[in-house]
Amino acid sequence: MPEFQRSFRRSRFTLTPVAFVAIALLPFALHAQGAPEMDPPLVLKSSPLLQEQIPQAMRDQMPTFFSGDHTLGRPDLDTVIEGNAVMRKGDMVVKADRVEYYQPDDLLKARGNVHINSAGNIYEGPTLQLKVDAFEGFFDQPRYQILKNGAYGEASRADFIDDKRVVLHNATYSTCRRQPGPDWLPDWILKATSISIDTEEEVGVADGAVLRFKDVPIMAFPAMDFPLSEKRKSGFLPPTIGLDSTNGAELTVPYYWNIAPNRDATLFPTVMSKRGVDFGGEFRYLEPDYRGTLRANYMPDDKLRDSSRWGYAFTHTGTIDSGLSGVGKLGLNLNLNRVSDDNYWTDFTQTSSTLTQRLLSNDATLSWARGNFSTSVRTLKWQTIQSISSPIVPPYDRLPQLTARYARYDLPGGLDASVDGDYTEFSADRSLTLQPNAKRAFVLGQISRPWVAPGWFLTPKVQLHATRYTFDEALVNGATTADRTVPTFSLDSGLIFERDASFWGKALRQTLEPRAFYVRTPYRNQSNLPIYDTGANDFNFATVFTENAFSGNDRISDSNLLTLGLTTRFLEPDTGAELARFGIAQRLRFADQNVTLPGGTPVSDRLSDVLVGAQLNWDPRWSFDSTVQYNPKTGRSERSTVGGRWNPGNYRVISANYRYQRGTSEQIDIGWQWPLSAPWGDAEPSAGRWYSVGRMNYSMQDRKMVDAVLGFEYDAGCWLGRVVLSRTQTSTSTASQKIAFQLEFVGFTRLGVGTNPLSVLKENIPRYQYLREQISTPSRFSQYD
């Protein structure tokens, strides 16, 4: 199903302070040199002769041209042309052995090898009668071709209603290209009592229709409609047949409902032989001030569980007009997810990636901002999906959470200051969390003075964290409240050097950017404070230059450390695009870090592990990204992530990732889409071509496949076939397997949400491309006579 909005990939454009100042001074330099004023650019004038659609009023005023071997006629009455007869008017051409035109009635009669081209739509047959300006008439025994989707067919008669609408009687319809020979039969063909073609609405309607594949009838419809282009259109989407290790045989027949230009819905009921019928659907809406998606599934009677099963996922983002001039608009964000029972995530692994997780959020946020002040109120409640074999501790609900922020970046003396406040009531099942619920008020005030100049920056900052807890039950020490106040001082500094460089014959601009970050936070004993929303920060380039070693507000780490880093980047001088980046960073600790999470030990290493990272985008066809956490004491890497992608052309992509964490996990992730029988330089779809698609996630530590998707697609030109085998790990010892089959008739059925296995391929394979996806609208000039 087409997206509401086309997504664009943004290229990264980076300017150093030196480059920024140079660009800012460029207009002054041109003025000083007395640069001449530029003439306005030349603009091509559009011609009505090249219009895709000629307005009716303009068409009526266009002249009519006749040509042929022999011409007879009476002025203002009739014209008769015999032998290679041709009549042209606007975007219409009629060719025949004999053409008769009666001017008072605007009536044209053509006989013998009649060929008519109307704005790219072609009809051929023995006899034509047509009122030219109204484009009203009939064609006996025509063969036809529709421009929008390249469809072919035959009929006993074609009745032209106007230049946009035609009714074909006893007609056939197929997008399979006609092959020479008397016994040719298209791979798929629609036969109907009548087919109405509307090129303005880009839709066809068939009555008494039978769809045949390989000359075998597979579906019959008393009445049905189908799209003539990629334009959104209500109708059935390609059905899917599958075999699931848990659900048995499955059949899904999706239906797409184009409600309005900014609203649509997809219904995808699925019949499962072992369970019953799962009624699934998705509704989407888009307005200027808000958008959202609702997806829901309901199975009234699950034979395996002997109960009804359901799940829903709802997202909404937008603004609400309060109607008060002093308030204005409020921001509203909803993310609601819920399922009927704890077994849902293992029983319906293909339902939705949102509903097959074990932590389902029900999150609602109302926000407001005006000038330097912003505030929000949030409620967050979790549904925790428990498993007997691997229970998890549920996170805390926030009912409610109130936040406020006031920030100024224009204070005297170049100072920046901000105050952040947070009040949250945490609640959870105490039998599982083993600690009291609490109300926590947190305030963070900070002031800094940035100095930024071409080639360097220096930013000292002072922070003050103040926190108060009120518990619903006493702690171990008997206290029902707790307070904490912690100051922090940090100093961030860096230099930026640039030089012109050349590598492999390519002119580049190289930067060298050393950075030093010092932070000092005194020790405050926080061991008695419970943990509600806090965890240890990951050790990476995004967190190594931050003040606190923890995320959340329950722990403020004591720190006396200096972080040193060095980055070099290679940029294209003309565009600023980053082609390569290399970085290294390490922390020097001057005192032990004594604040830890429960069960943790103080950090006493004076030198942290070394972070080494590299990103390469030297050629648009491939990319590389790697981060290694290296322990200099042991001489081994503690954690590594290495990934790359090779994309030499359309429908050719291979991606691979290696993730390693010592003593915890080691995995290899490979994804691909690749033609199996295609010349290397041929990047376009071709009839008779097989494609291999898949993604595999293998655990080297456990020596087993975790998740896998493996499939094959066949492009026959006018139809596509695909088979996909998927394996999803549902627990440490069990997995769900499914094989799905799908048949798609090009130009007749369309792609859509809810259609497996296409959704499985798109979600799992990076940069997967749909086969036979129409990118540009066909032009009438491609069928010009």
TrEMBL record:
Residues 76-202 form the Organic solvent tolerance-like N-terminal domain. Pfam families: LptD (PF04453), LptD_N (PF03968). InterPro entries: LipoPS_assembly_LptD (IPR020889), LptD (IPR050218), LptD_C (IPR007543), OstA-like_N (IPR005653). It is found in: Cell outer membrane. Its main location: membrane. Residues 308-677 form the LptD C-terminal domain. Keywords: Cell outer membrane, Membrane, Signal. The keyword Cell membrane does not apply. Component of the lipopolysaccharide transport and assembly complex. Interacts with LptE and LptA. Belongs to the LptD family. HAMAP family: LPS_assembly_LptD. Together with LptE, is involved in the assembly of lipopolysaccharide (LPS) at the surface of the outer membrane. This is LPS-assembly protein LptD. The gene is lptD.
